[in-house]
Amino acid sequence: MQRFAELYTRLDSTTATNDKVAALKDYFQSAPAEDAAWAVHFLVGRRLKRLVPNARLREWAGEVTGYAPWMIEECYSSVGDLAETVTLLLDAVATGQPGHDRPLHEWVETRIEPLRKMDEADQRDAVTGWWRDVPTDQRFVLNKLLTGAFRVGVAKRLVTRALAEHGGLDTSKVAHRLMGRWIPSGPFFERLLDPEDHGEDAAQPYPFFLASPIEQMAGDAGPVSDWLVEWKWDGIRAQLIRRQGQCHIWSRGEEPMPGRFPEIEQAAAQLPDGCVLDGEILAWKDDAPMPFAQLQRRIGRLKPSEKLQAQAPVIFQAYDLLEGDGRDLRDDPIEARRSRLTALLDAANAGPALRISGRVEADSWDRLEALRAESRERGTEGFILKRAGSPYRVGRKRGDWWKWKVEPYTVDAVLLYAQPGHGRRSNLLTDYTFGVWDGDEIVPFAKAYSGLTDKEISELDRWIRRHTKERFGPVRSVELAQVFELAFEGIRSSNRHKSGIAVRFPRIARWRRDLAIADAEQLQQIRDMLPAGG
Q: Confidence class of residue 77 from pLDDT cuts 50, 70 and 90?
């Protein structure tokens, strides 16, 4: 564990990309394969299922340190990160001396994971014993693993790059091997860096290629004919895999979704073996997309009822073919991939649940911009533009794929509440709740936590602390004085919200220092934005 704790410290103490990669390579060079596999597991964002409730950890920390529960809660509220809070509280408790150090994989497999089967008393004895036994830096990492909040400011792409450089492999090969289902182990880590391909899991997806945002296509983009233009659909990005007689659906978040969309699985049974389609899952009825809220009803249902399937039917809108006849097609030009995709779907005759995304035809950028203005009426978010001849890359590589979205909705709203953020912002008040006027009353409307610069966040944090009216645990209500312009992508009616409205992807567009709270939006004005039937 000590080697992993030292890696965490190195990663957490720098913002320089090359320094982070160097730290990772040093670790992979020296760590046993079993430890390195678990390190990769945590560093790419995977986590252990929470084994001990946070409330118990706070209670046990109080018992070990002698601090009263209210003091624990106040410290947690101030720090914002439970692992860091507990580690700081334990600072006065004697730690174990450097000496016998258990490997990371042994910690996880023989100590931490068995907590799941223990009763509360045995859990308490184990955890508090570890706190007294290990040095402070290991305490911090241990608490991170116990809480599941393992954030260290290193992106998955940096881990992939470090592994590729360490193993002398192409980053795309490593990225592919890190996708899908795998179990941290010594053999897994060795296969991860093996220059030879030994066949992947039949259910394994490819890394997704992500479009970069753009506000306006530049003049040097060339003629429209140099681009394949498609509507940007508001659904779930997914890969549909047909291998060895089975169908697998993976979300962009690397979550397998078996049984959730039986219509799509049944249609995929008509596809030939050895193909992988990239596309979007949409709620679709009467030859048009349904609001995203209808798709949300399906997302959490592992086995949707026939009634729900009838109310919110889904389709897979395919727009790329990543594998055909068992061959990786990602390096082929997009025109060739799309031609094979069209032929594949025509031959499969899989029915309405599996279709190809249509191409938007326009003879000029002006005409394309005019069509883009119709996005909301068509139930889309704008365009995806793909450069002619482009391969299917890994991650968000700028240049070949762009998302040209329709302008967001915007409203002016009043700051009502604030609470601490997470990670490096855990000591700052960065999570905000905003309200709008409903007659003579301001009602909560939306929460947002992104959009401000670091300088603005620090300034607003100081203002909030000076103008707090009440505190409810970590949440502070503030004097009604600050107005912000909020931007969001979608809007719908909602019985779960006091305002009667829910919005998608709200964020702060700007701090409206020029406005008084009386200038904030009226709720009725926002209701007028609702789409027909919304």
A: confident
Looking at domain 212-405, which of 2.40.30.160, 3.30.470.30, 2.70.98.40, 3.90.45.10 is its CATH number?
3.30.470.30
Do residues 164 and 176 lie in contact, with contact meaning Cβ atoms separated by under 8 Å? no
- At the topology level, CATH places domain 409-527 in OB fold (Dihydrolipoamide Acetyltransferase, E2P) (2.40.50)
Two structure tokens written together for 264: 């799509």
Strand partners, 321: 277
> What is the distance between the alpha carbons of residues 167 and 372, in angstroms, rounded to a whole number?
45
**Cβ-based neighbours of 263, under 8 Å, separated by 6 or more:** 309, 313, 314, 315, 353
Where b means 16+ CB within 10 Å and e means fewer, 286-299 reads eeebbbbbbbeebe
Burial class (CB in 10 A: 0-12, 13-18, 19+), 266: middle
Q: Which residue has the tokens 């116990």?
A: 146
3-state percent breakdown (helix, strand, coil) of the chain, nearest 5: 40, 25, 35
Please state, in angstroms and rounded to a whole number, the distance separating the CA atoms of residues 74 and 56.
Answer: 16
CA–CA dist 291, 288 (Å, integer): 10
User: Do the domains spanning 2-147 and 212-405 agree at the CATH topology level?
Assistant: no
| Nearest-10 Cα torsion for 32, 35, 36, 38 | 160
The closest of 246, 249, 247, 248 to 235, measured between CA atoms, is 249
Q: Please spell the DSSP secondary structure of 76-134, one letter per residue.
A: HHHH--HHHHHHHHGGGS--PPS-----HHHIIIIIIGGGGGS-HHHHHHHHHHHHHHS
Tell me: the pLDDT tens digits for 164-217?
999 999 998 899 999 988 999 999 999 999 988 766 678 899 999 999 988 776
**Using one digit for the tens of pLDDT, what is the confidence trace for 218-259?**
567 888 899 999 999 989 999 999 999 999 999 988 889 999
CA 8 distance to own-chain centroid: 22
Interior angle at CA 426, CA 423 and CA 427, nearest 5: 140
- Residues 503-528: pLDDT tens digits? 888 999 999 998 889 999 999 889 88
Residue with tokens 């008509």: 270
Report the candidate in 84, 181, 186, 97 with the shortest Cα–Cα distance to residue 140. 84
Token pair for residue 255? 């979550």
pLDDT of residue 424: 64
Kindly report the pTM of this predicted structure. Answer: 0.77
Fold of the 2-147 domain: DNA ligase i, domain 1 (1.10.3260)
How far is 328 from 248, CA to CA, in rounded Å?
17
| Per-domain boundaries in the chain | 2-147, 212-405, 409-527
Q: Are strands 468-472 and 246-251 parallel, antiparallel or unpaired?
A: unpaired
Angle (CA) 116 121 123, round 5°: 35
Residue partners of 198: CB distance under 8 A and separation at least 6: 191
pLDDT of 147 > 90? The answer is no
- Least confident range of 97-101, 374-378, 439-443, 445-449: 97-101
**Amino acid letter, residue 365:** W
